Amino acid sequence: MDLLSSVITLPMAVAAAGAAHYLGAKAVKAVLWSVSPLSTGEPQAFTYERDVWRTAEPATMQVLIAVLASGVLVWFGAVIAQSWVSGLGVLAWIGALLFDLQRWERVAVSANNLWFQRGYWQKVHRVAYENIRDAHIEEKDAGGFTLRRGRHNRVCRLQVRMKDKRIVALPKTDAYAGLGDVEEVANQLRQRLRHLEDREAVKRSEAAAHEAAKRAAETPTGGDDELHRALRKLRAGALAPNVPPAVKLRRES
């Protein structure tokens, strides 16, 4: 292979390795979402994952370097006419795909739990809604590098505050492409938290009315009036519990 051909085919080989990884990893992850969902015992409602090609994070940049390096190795094997070197490049590409799965981070919400995983072969973490106080979306500029936007990147993620005041920082993803998915997860989580608050408010109203009715029954005089007032309070509390106001979401383009 002459010098001109070598120079021309290098970017073609690197681009082919990148395109093959983009399509291959997307297909593999779609299959894994289907056969190995995060939630167990209940269906997933909404999900989001870290986008390797768009998220400006050191872990994702390392995956892309491995992918592009495999393309260079295949090209070098063709230049020196050594098929075994090109074969090593193919093996390196497969290794880069496995490396991608090892760094794969994803989040899901179901009816009663929040789930997340950092690395496909790592532990799946489950957080019950009863232990969550509130949640919000964090969005900020990222200092890393991506092929699409260079150094002008933004990342976002869902942050969850527990009732014991601990903060659970969930995986980051590209804000330009992934913010919609993160907001869907956040909306579902907030909706479930409001439902829990509604039920707790009804229970508190019922308990207060029951206690008032009990006191009225034990009162020598005026017991019937107290009882009627307690029953009216019970019905009013069940129909219109004292619930916290809905959270207004902030959406940024």
From TrEMBL:
Location of region: Disordered: 204-229
Keywords carried by this UniProt record: Membrane, Transmembrane, Transmembrane helix
Keyword flag Transmembrane helix: yes
Superkingdom in the source lineage: Bacteria
Regions of compositional bias (Basic and acidic residues) in chain numbering: 204-217
Transmembrane annotation, as ranges: 63-96
Record's protein name: Uncharacterized protein
